[in-house]
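Researcher: Go.
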Amino acid sequence: MSYRIETDSLGKVKISKNKLWGAQTQRSLENFKIGQDIMPLELIKALALIKECCVEIHAKKNNLDKTKALKIKKACQEVQKGFLDDHFPLSVWQTGSGTQTNMNVNEVIANRAIQLSKGKIGDKSIHPNDDVNKSQSSNDTVPSAMRVAIYTFAQKKLLPAISLFEKSLKLKIKEFDSIIKTGRTHLMDAVPLSLSQEFSAFHQQIALNKKRIENNLDDLLFLPIGGTAVGTGLNTFLQFSERVCDLIKQKTGYNFKSAKNKFSEISNHDCLVELSGSLKTLAVSLTKIANDIRLLSSGPRCGLGELILPANEPGSSIMPGKVNPTQCEALTMLCLQVIGQDLNVSLGGSSGQLQLNAYKPLIFFNCLRSVRLLTDGLNSFREKALKDLKANKKKIKEHLENSLMLITALNPHLGYDKVSQIAKLAYKKDITLKEATQKLGFLTVKEFDKLVQAKNMIKANLR
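Model: Structure:
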């Protein structure tokens, strides 16, 4: 979107035609022509929700004309429903307090409320500051909206995506239960395990990540609304914050509460820094999982080839029949993006001064983007890769039977040194472990077959 500021002969800002914003929004458009990142609508809608709740409280308290309050409330609801999305054009890269976006919302709601009252837009019969922003500051509304927006998105989108991914891994654990394969450590052959056990590690990673994120999200439920400029609650009244939070809770269905120490919640965003860290940890886990699946599916003939990825699209513009692990690549790329965004959130969180952290847009933008990327990445990988992932039983069997590390089962019977001799001889002469054991005269064929069985080796005495 591109907008142009206009002034009259006296230098007064003219408002763009067919738009509901006012002078402060217009000035921001002119002064912050930076990048193409527009403030996410999730924040806009959360601000509108907060303002709807504030105006309801004032109307009940007889602090605001009820007819005026009704029009403001309707305008707030239209913003939340997405009817006025085109009226919020401001860049993420603006004032670090988010004041310009707060005023953008105030101006649009005020002018839309005036429209609904059959008045003339811009006449300030409903005032953006005195009415829509009554008993509020950007310093308490913006951080409150940040929390409401991220918490709501994560509850509705990210956590269900994680749960579905976790469920899909459980299905694979069940599907792969009887398949015994070669383990690998340091990318070298190791003792066997089942494919089910290998995937159980992935499942545990995801389950623990979900718990971490749920715990971090709980901290976002405490809102600084009512703290106004620095946390003192100037220009509010007793119980204003609690009553606003109760209304937010009613309208969202989530247990939002008034923060006990609003000085803290306005001056820092540690809860979002911690959440971002957990999102990063999920990204790290998903990178490990996707890269392991990519390695196990490499080939199909000249790699490990133990897994078969679904062939969603041609993999090469020159090599016919090639299938690439594109979902693995997409997931790992977005995970690296999330890991990088966490650094930005950490730096933003550490850079606040005194009574205000003035890096709010940076912190919110990166946190929300991480939540959205992980949500989409989980869903895409689950649907396009994990769901139809198959085990290549033939290749798995070949690798298992060819593994020298099966000989580890003889350690308790022959000792490490003798078993090492068997493995080295088998490798040097390119013969089987059984043949090498016989050549060295350590065991009979019958004894070897009884002691070296992969199915017995995977049944570890885990507690």
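Model: The chain has a mean pLDDT of 94.
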